[in-house]
Amino acid sequence: RHSGVRVIIPPRKAQMPMRITCRYLRKEKLPHPPPLLEGEACASRILEVGPAGAKFLGPVILEVPHFASLRGKEREITILRSDNGETWKEHTLEASEEAVQEVLNESFEGEELSALEDLQTNRITRILTTDFPQYFAVVSRTRQEVHAVGPEGGMLSSTVVPQVQAIFPEGALTKKIRVGLQAQPIQ
């Protein structure tokens, strides 16, 4: 059976030859599945990658198919990772178009590269990482705007529902914090 997962390791990014393994698991099979908040759901099975803890000399890409409906820009895909199978955290290395393009340009040329770019669809998410945790989880959630707000105050607006705003008056905060705002349109 073909999983659709693809691992792209550019030349000279592995310290030594290694056997890469990827396995899909049902979240029910994990002793500690990823903690999902209200409105969040797994968009594919949990991906177990190995060797767990492997470090690379630069970013590598995992392409993982998912079945999430992103409903335009209302929802987004986020990646959770677990290094030990017990605790989960958000994977912070963002797979921006520029970062992905840089890795692909290092790895492929001409026709190979254009064939890869054809693959970019809404049904595949790219995970950019410099190390392998034990597990990756592809999660669908309501789009979240995250901004840093400090003692000077500020305003957050939702790109999904522009009428939704959070206003922090000057002096309301004592230090700079990251604030997340989620809004879901109701028809």
Automatic annotation (TrEMBL):
Domain of life: Eukaryota
Pfam families: ZU5
Entry-linked SMART domains: ZU5
Keywords: ANK repeat, Repeat
Domain ZU5: 1-141
Gene3D superfamilies attached to this UniProt entry: 2.60.220.30
InterPro entries assigned to the protein according to its UniProt record, in alphabetical order: Multifunctional_ANK_Repeat, ZU5_dom
Protein name as it appears in the record: Putative cell adhesion molecule binding protein
